[in-house]
Amino acid sequence: MLKISKHVYWDGIRDWDLRLFHGHELSTHRGSTYNSFIIKDEKTVLVDTVWFPHTNSYIDRIEHDVGIDNIDFIIINHNEPDHGGALKAIMEKRPELPIYCSANGEKIIKAHFHKDWNFNVVKTGDTINIGRNNLKFIEMKMIHWPDSMMVYLDNDKVLLSNDAFGQHYCAMSMFNDEVDRDELFQEAIKYYANILTPFSPLIARKIDEVLKLNLDIEIIAPSHGVIWRENPLQIIEAYASWSDNYKEDFAVIVYDTMYEATLRMAEAIEKGLRSKGVKVKLYNSSVSDMSDLLTEIFKAKALAIGSCTVNNNALTSIVALTHEIAAHKMKGKPFVSFGSYGWSGEAPAHISETLVKAGLTPVHEPIKTSYTPTEEALEECVRAGVALAEAAGE
């Protein structure tokens, strides 16, 4: 166990080897943690569990550190299997143990385990006294699941925030003041971009709601990654910024190509952007990590996406990328689409159509050129880059 406040202890799992998460959807280059917490007050409370592949080692640790028979009740802030996966093993030992969760939490736990356990439904504002601390519950519906909530300990001034404010980051320490700050924020914004971006309007409203509760917060302990104990409000401030049409001072160009004609068009667009003083990041989507690409696109103030045409459409990596941009609701960015073709040239138009439907803003007609681009075609790409820079505010 690791003590994080007078009454709260971390007793989770550090997964150094994790490289893919949510199936194979999300890359986790620096591993992750599954943060389970034990509150030792007049009552002993377990808050969340861990991912089910780690059940056996986790149960052994809980038995050693606190003893399952000594737990008075469990709080499940969110029952996605990386948080609630070991719940069944605990309940098999203590089937009468009270479980505190949201109304949606009860439904989801039942859907996962098909058990009618001793559920106690709570909502925002509900409190439980456990001795020195009152536990206050705060629902975080759709951030990022319907059952999500947080719990606040008023004496210890600790917010157990579940997925909010987390990172997939297994580091040399469990505390933010003892890790590499650049690494930490790289993982925090990647986590936000890939998991929470679709819920940005909800997050902005929820942050305002939480701040109005006037909680005195000295520690924020999420369910993945490190615990914020030095200036913990910095991550709330970051979320407020990320949820509000966030952008950094650069453009992203993403392309896929078969024989480098589309690459030449990408480089011409880059030339146009740089001529107006815009910094540019250029990526080949076929050899780039999708989660990292989405993070860079989330941060970018402007976007260009291109592909040659195959079977009347863009190449697979670009089709997948545009689908993910739409699914993540990365709205409002100016963009251009482009690509080379042989006997048909539908890819740029398909890219543009998908992005327009997703809420991005085209600043130029889709650019297509047959086979190797001519100097005239490349000049059009340069002009598109200039238009993109101007639309981005340069």
Task: Give a verbal description of the structure.
- This protein is an alpha/beta fold and 394 residues long.
- 35% of the residues lie in helices and 23% in strands.
- The protein is built from twelve helices and 24 strands.
- Strand 8 (44-47), helix 1 (55-65) and strand 9 form a beta-alpha-beta unit.
What's the number of structural domains? Answer: 2
Work out the helicity level. 25-40%
- Major sheet strand order: 1-2-7-8-9-10-11
**CATH fold type of the largest domain:** Metallo-beta-lactamase, Chain A
N- to C-terminal separation? Answer: 52 Å
Instruction: Please tell me the overall pLDDT.
Output: 97
How is the biggest beta sheet arranged? 7 strands, mixed
CATH architecture descriptor name of the largest domain = 4-Layer Sandwich
Low-confidence stretches: none
Number of strands: 24
By secondary-structure content and strand pairing, the structural class works out as alpha/beta
What is the CATH top level name of the largest domain? Alpha Beta
Helix count equals: 12
- Portion in strands: 15-25%
Oligomer: single chain
User: Going by CATH, what is the homologous superfamily of the largest domain?
Assistant: Ribonuclease Z/Hydroxyacylglutathione hydrolase-like
Shape: elongated
- Radius of gyration, rounded? 24 Å
